[in-house]
Each structure stands twice: as structure tokens, then as C-alpha cells.
Amino acid sequence: MSDEPEVITRVEGKVGRITLNRPQALHALTSNMIALMTQALLAWIDNPGVRLVLIDHSGERGFCAGGDIRMLAESGAGDGREAREFFFTEYRLNSLLHDYPKPLVAIMDGITMGGGVGLSRPCRYRVATERTTFAMPETGIGLFPDVGGGWYLSRMSDHIGLWLALTGARIKAADCELTGLATDYVESSQLPALKAAILAEPSAIETILTEFEGDAGRPPLAAHQDEIARLFAGDSVEAIAANLKAADTDWAREQLAVLATKSPQTMKVAFRQLKLGGAMTRFADNMAMEYRIGARVVQRHDFLEGVRAVIVDKDNAPKWDPPTLEAVSETLIDGIFAPLPSTEEWTPLP
User: Fold this and answer.
1) DSSP state of 325
2) Which of 41, 194, 215, 341 is 20 to 30 A from residue 254's alpha carbon, by CA?
3) Confidence class for position 60, pLDDT limits 50, 70, 90
């Protein structure tokens, strides 16, 4: 075990710095990491010496690959208490970031998935590099696109957010800029100089990002935007699958094949999550909804089976239950979204 902290927090000049420091696990979030970040962010709110917060990571392999999935699955196989506590505090951090009163900068260098999206997306400035890979891959392990996915993905144009949620598609920097997931593109070789410039003059952040802006190239997703807008406009996951089947293009067939590998339960959860989240007017209400979902699905068959198949045994052959979209009843989904007992509901930080 390393003696280094999992998150390094400090103030440099007028910048509060948060550096994820669990490189051997691609900075996958633990409860301790969430606590360290929350503590630092709360301390800096009323610190007039902190003008801006910069979130980055140590090493070169990725910004943040998500949450501690093995812990969640082990807890879910038991009483689920530790998993619920993790979601509760993680969602409080997501909400704190969303409403943070000072500018936030995330350096999305490398893998930015799941929990990493929850850290980066609330930031005003989101810097991608040629190494950035963005995804919300939860439907492939029976979880759901949480950490604010119901809010952010539902607000993306042309149903791209729903496409990302259902398929778990991985996209690179140019597509992140196209869709607004990233605000800027900087070559990874320029990151040390970029960070130094921000630390030297945080008030000039917009000018600095403009000076360091590179060319991410043509976004591959642009060629399919119209198809996504049309085919993912269905009023149910079954309707979307029918649209893809009827389109009978190479791209549509590829999407249909991808959806066939995902948890039917999770796809229906994600569809309703985005529909409800898109209609909400407060981010905290979305997080309360996502906590209800998380508190339940973490103990359901599909999450435990998905983790077994993809992460533990790596046979990539999960046996979903229910096995088809048609077999996932609205009653089942209603139960996942139902209110929790009043003493167990999620609340933002006081």
C-alpha cells in the first residue's frame, strides 16, 4: 500500500488544487477520496485567497475511470449499506460541484468515465486532450448513468445524451467538444505549461485557455447526428430499437447490436431517468431521484451479474434478468424509482 494520499489537496497562489492520486486504479473514486475533495471544497468557499479550483490527476493513464465498482458489488451482495453510503456522499459532492460559487477547471486528460464525469461535467471549464476518452458505460454492468447523468445527458441536443446513456459509447476529444462535454482542447504536452499559467494568473483563465487551444480534428459523431436525432426520438427503448431495426443502415445495425449486449432493466431505468431529469428544475431533485435508483439497483441481479461478467470473471457474457426489454415491466421500474422512507432519502450538504 502506498503512503501517499488518494487525493492531494492544497492551495497554490490563488488556486485551490485537487489532484486525484490513485493512478493504479485509474483514480476510481473511493469514499475516502470523496471525503477529501468535499472537505477541501467546503473550506475554500469562504477563503478569499482561493479564486479558482483546478481538478486534475497524477500520472498519464486517465482522469477518473469511475467509482469503486468492486466495493459496490460486494456491498450490494450483502446488505448494501456501504454502497448506499458511497452514493450518498458522492452525490453530495456532485451537488456541491454543480452549485460551487467559484470557477472550476477540470483537466479531462485520458479516461473520463462514470464518476469522473460527475467530477468534470459540473466544472465551468472542461479541458480535453488527444488522450481523452469519455463514456457513461453503466448499462453494460447493470448499473445506470448516475452522478448527474439524468440532468446533464437529458439536456444534450439531438438525443445524443440518451444515445450515450443507452449504448455506453466511447467518444474522443473532438466529439466531446462537439457535444459540449468539453469546453476546450489542449494537447497533453502543453498541460504543464497550461497549469502553470493558470496558477500564475487564475483571473485570466479564459484568455489562457484561448492561447493554449489546439485543434481536436473533425468530430466523427457529426456524421451520425441526424441519425441519432431521428432514431433515438422514440417514446420507449423498445421504440428506439424498432427505429434502428427499420432504418437498416450499417450504423443502425451496429447500435442495435450494442444495445443487445446491455442490461434491459438498466436501459429502461436510464430512459426514464433522463426523461424525468430533463423535466426537473433543480439539480438536487435529480440527485435525490438518482439516489433512489442507486440504493435499489446496487442490490439487484443485473448489477451483481454485470460486475461478475465484465470485471470479475471477464467472460463478458452476463445473463440479464429480465432477459429482454419486453420482459422488464413498468411495475419493476416504478419500484426502482419509488420514494424511499423519509429517513433514508438523499439530501444535499446542509
Assistant:
1) T
2) 215
3) confident
Segments in 201-341 forming alpha helices (H): 205-212, 225-231, 237-247, 250-259, 264-279, 283-297, 301-307, 330-337
Give CA 327 to chain center in angstroms: 28
67 belongs to the catalytic site: yes
Element spanning 19, H or E: strand 15-20
Question: Of residues 115, 116, 149, 294, which has the active-site annotation?
Answer: 115
Catalytic residue status for 115: yes
CB-based contact 332:269 (threshold 8 Å): no
Cα 344 from Cα 1, distance rounded (Å): 34
Active-site pick, 66, 67, 76, 114 = 67
Question: What is the number of alpha carbons within 13 Å of residue 300 lying toward its C-beta?
Answer: 24
Q: Residue 8 has what pLDDT?
A: 98
pLDDT of res. 271: 98
Name the catalytic one among 56, 138, 290, 302.
Answer: 138
pTM value is 0.96
Residue count of the chain: 350
All residues at 6 or more sequence positions from 2 whose CB lies less than 8 Å from its CB, including other chains = none
Beta pairing class for 133-135 and 111-113: parallel
Q: Looking at 240-331, which runs of residues are DSSP E strands? A: none
DSSP 189: G
Phi/psi for 216 (5° steps) reads -80, -10
- pLDDT of residue 111 exceeding 80: yes
Question: Is residue 128 classed as helix, strand or coil in its secondary structure?
Answer: strand
Question: Which of 165, 136, 160 has the alpha carbon at shortest distance from 221?
Answer: 160
Phi, psi of 290 (to 5 degrees): -65, -30
**Burial of residue 76 (number of CB atoms within 10 Å: 0-12, 13-18, 19+):** buried
Q: Tell me: the pLDDT tens digits for 204-263?
A: 999 999 999 999 999 999 999 999 999 999 999 999 999 999 998 999 999 999 999 999
Q: φ, ψ for residue 243 (rounded to 5)?
A: -60, -45
